[in-house]
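Quick one:
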Amino acid sequence: MDYNPSLETRRLILRKISEADKMDLFELLTNSQIDKKMVWNHLDDMNEITEYLNEIVGSYHNNQPSCFGIELKESGKLIGIIKLFNYDDEFKCVEVHYMLLPSHHRQGIMTETLLKVIAFIFNETDINRIEAFCLKKNRAAGKVLDKAGMHLEGVLREKIFINDEFIDLKLYSILKSDIQYG
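Output:
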């Protein structure tokens, strides 16, 4: 089974990322507006981007869902990514993480993407639970997760330490039994 097929929505193609996406990835991963809202440390040079790209491409051989590039059908431009990681085979759980260029925020693109990926995971894999974390202060990310049918489970106080500061995270989840796909 191909755990990272191309998926389509009305406006988007969700597909594997390749070497040809390096400059679009650089634009995405070094964007300072995105950086303020993410649960990870900043990437800031082409060597780090290349290493990250190589990790993604390598993950396609692990027989697990891993990472989809978010491409606008209209332009063919990679405008974001949605990454699946921390796959737990025993407990049938995976974590989802996403980012989108700010010029495409507030257009429903991430909700559209997340709904498609959730449907794929629950219809085509044995995964039972999908989790997502977002910064407590990132209200927009919480709204996306709500609109995609994910449930807020709680706040993890001072869960991570970034830029010399402890940060609270919100934990969201959705179970296969929460939604009936057909």
